[in-house]
Amino acid sequence: MSGIGVEAWLNLEGTPFAVLPRFVTSLAIGLLLGVERERKQRPLAGIRTFPLAAMLGTMLTMLGQMTATPVLIAVGLAGVIALGFLPEGHQEAEVQEPRTTTLVSLMLAYGLGALVWYNQSELAIATAILATALLYLKPELTGIARKLERRDLLSLLQFATLTFIILPILPNRAMGPYLALNPHKIWLMVVLIVGVSLTGYLAVRLLGERASGPWLGLLGGMVSSTATSLVYAREARSNPGSLSFATSVILLANIVLFLRLIVLAAILVPAALGAMAMVMLPALGLGLITALLRFRHDQSQAGHPELTLSNPTELKLALGFALMFAVVVLCSAWLHDLYGSRGIYAVALISGVNDVDPITLTVLNLFGEHRLDIRQVIISVVLAVFANNLFKFGLIASLGGRTLAWRCLPTFILSGAGMLGGLLLLGTGVA
Questions:
Q1: Quick check: helix, strand or coil at residue 147?
Q2: ∠ CA 109-111-115, rounded to 5°
Q3: CA distance 202 to 144
Q4: Which domain of life is it from (predicted)?
């Protein structure tokens, strides 16, 4: 990075003040942190000390570079740390803010000042903003921490182990029959399933059922409507009190799928956006109407059982889904080897059972290369969505039970009818 370019804008090159903008940047960073600290009762450092510490970091880094004495940076940091050992200088009965927090913030300001000298102003400013937000939001963060139990923290540690320790060491290459199995991608599905389940559990614990349901549906639809349907279908079966909540999350996740396809077309091949929107918008609209009717019906009913989601510490469901994912991928590769020559539509049906995104990306790229026309692209995507919806509805019925399946069926049927109607309109327009 080359810095924010203030020196060139002010035309200070060649003058004694060429580096002054860097000190001004450090001053601003220190003021940002210092203003937040000044709000506390009798802080160790405040609106004056923080800017001075940041500019000290910039100055000592400059001197260390000019004199080839980088130890000056460490000396300055030691001086800042020494401030924490000074006596408080007052005997107030209540000093609410721990000195350690202010001391670490002061050390950070000093370090960010040093970072500014190395032409990393953007990074230093962004870090200062994040640090100020962390300091300012102490009451909210403390409230969240107090709501979490020991098993919640164990679930977070478990998820971190799955994501940041196991996933990176798995080979990310194709292997096995038809080179269809990729251990990294299969384990990524485990991470996805556990992540969706853990997000839902924590959202309900922290936000409540009504506040977290719509957000979980939107998030699940953007990440994986299949994984979301699986997780909350299982929850509805194991806890009848979560039936309404699970229905809302599943329906919203599956409705957002149509919006996601429109966004993919807009980003990858804007020329296909009009046709994709013509087919997906009717499905999106009809799905929203049926979902809203379901939500209103649920809210009008009194006496819902209490919602208590189970903590997602068990990995049996995730591992089972990963195994199923591997089997579907393997069968897809086998069927593609047998019937792939019969056209892109067979491939769309086969691959759509597992995930809509791969075939969508493939046909959009082929359209961009002028190897498919727009009608072939849209038909392929529609076939993939139908196959995927059929698979998801099977998951909902088998894992969630008959009641959940009947609650979700109208949205699946009418959104599918919307796609077919849009396809017919597209065929008329193309013809």
A1: helix
A2: 115
A3: 10
A4: Bacteria
DSSP bridge partners of 181: 175
Distance of CA 254 to the CA centre of its chain: 18
If DSSP codes are grouped into helix, strand and coil, which group holds residue 381? helix
Each residue's pLDDT tens digit, 213-237: 677 777 667 667 777 788 788 878 8
Residue 235 to residue 246: CA distance in whole angstroms:
7
CA distances from 196 to 203, 242, 319 (A): 11, 16, 14
List C-alpha distances in Å: 209 to 202, 204, 248.
11, 5, 10
Q: For 378-413, how does the pLDDT look when each residue is reduced to its tens digit (9 = 90+)?
A: 988 999 899 999 988 988 888 888 888 898 999 999
What are the boundaries of each domain within the chain? 6-88+96-136, 149-430
Q: What residues contact 63, with CB distance under 8 A and at least 6 apart?
A: 69, 72
The answer to whether 252 touches 223, Cβ cutoff 8 Å, is no
Contact 408, 250 (CB under 8 A): yes
User: What Rg, from alpha-carbon coordinates, does the chain have?
Assistant: 28
Query: Is the model's pTM score more than 0.85?
Result: no
Residue 103 to residue 411: CA distance in whole angstroms: 56
